[in-house]
Predict the structure.
Amino acid sequence: MDYLQESYPVSGTRACGLLHLAVSSYYYQPRGHREETPLREALRRHAAVRRRWGYRRLTVLLRRDGFTDNHKRIHRLYRAEGLQVRQRRRRKQRLARGTVQPPVPVQPNERWSLDFVHDRLVNGRTLRMLTIVDDYTRECLWIEADTSLSGPRVTRVLDCVTELRGRPTSLLTDNGPEFAGLALERWTHERQVQHRFIAPGKPSQNAYIESFNGKLRDECLNEHEFLHLHHARDLIETFRDDYNHYRPHSSLGGLTPAEFAARKIAPGPPWGPLGPDQPSTCSPHHQTPTSSNPPRLSLKALQSRGAGHVQCRMSSQNGTRLIQRIKV
């Protein structure tokens, strides 16, 4: 460049063109290395708490902390710190051919997915969990944990969740005996809720609940040892609350399910689709709300459960009062 400009009357831009050199590269001035220690410390701190999160979800947490670094820098530091998550791979299965996928929901409460997850306590007793997910908002509405869960127990849990959230349009389940039994059939018929079953041996047709169950097992069940039933319920409920209100969801644009639901669910009457004239299934003394003090049900079920019981709470403007302890 210097030789061309000294020997010939050409400008710097013309000289760069003759040498096939980008003008920005010629005039570029190095800025020096940026201090990365605060970013590394924040990345290690979040990764120590969220051991099963990859760099993309950790990037969302760093954005909340005020870091504006490019995702490529975060990925480089993530690998440099040795924070990569080892994937637990399963055996490949054959692709399902000729199966019809259920339609994608377009509004809250349009479809709830139900499924069971199994684990064990330290003493070897079986631990069963009933998970309920809203397929549109991705919220985990309930996780019922016990040593055994029957069909009537499933309907009582649905009654309590319906009291808090409103009635769903449809349910999507597999063909297990708890879902295919007479108790859930009667429950859906009396409340005019459509019940759809996936094809036998095709869990991919219930992809939303299967995805949540995978996160539940990877981030909660595989990370803890449950000393007893109450200990398991406390840890599982803590995970459910964290999943709904803190964990960013990639398919929701980095929002949490609670944030996404708050934008989509308009405030309405606390009785939901049941109507104000029908008696509540969770409240022993149902009162029609007045316009001066309308109670509002919380979407977050605060579960304080003993063995063989389910307990709900309803939030009102005057405070928080218990609805009822339902013996199961």
Observations:
- The chain has twelve helices and seven strands.
- The mean pLDDT is 78.
- The two ends are 85 Å apart (CA to CA).
- The beta strands are 111-120, 126-134, 140-146, 170-173, 194-197, 309-316, 319-327.
